[in-house]
Amino acid sequence: MMIVARKAGYSWGAVRDAIRADEELSRMMQDESETVNDVAELTIVEKIKGGDENSAKWWLARTRRTKFGDSVDITSGGQPIKIEVEWRTIDVGQSETSGASQETSGDSI
What we know:
By secondary structure, this protein is mostly helical. The protein is built from five helices and four strands; from the N terminus they run H-H-H-H-H-E-E-E-E. Helix 3 packs across helix 4.
C-alpha cells in the first residue's frame, strides 16, 4: 500500500489515516493482509509436506517453542535476581589485589 501511496503522490501516513477512518477500507486492508499470511503459511505447509526438513524445523521452533524453540526462558519467579561479582586487579610489577564482591538485585545487571 505504501508503494501505491507514493505513486499517487500521497504520504503513507495520510493514506494510513484515510484507511483507518474508513471502515470498509480498513476491513479490505485487513482481508488483504490475511490473504497474504494464508498464502505464506500454505507455502510453508506445502514445503513441509514435500519433506523439507528445514521448513519443518522452522515451523516447530515457532509453533511449539517450549519443546523445539531455540530461545531459553530464564525467569526468577518474580523475585529479585542476586548477582555477585568478584574481580582481581593485577598491576604490572606489583602483587595481585582482590576487590570486594558487589551485589546487584532487581532489573539492573
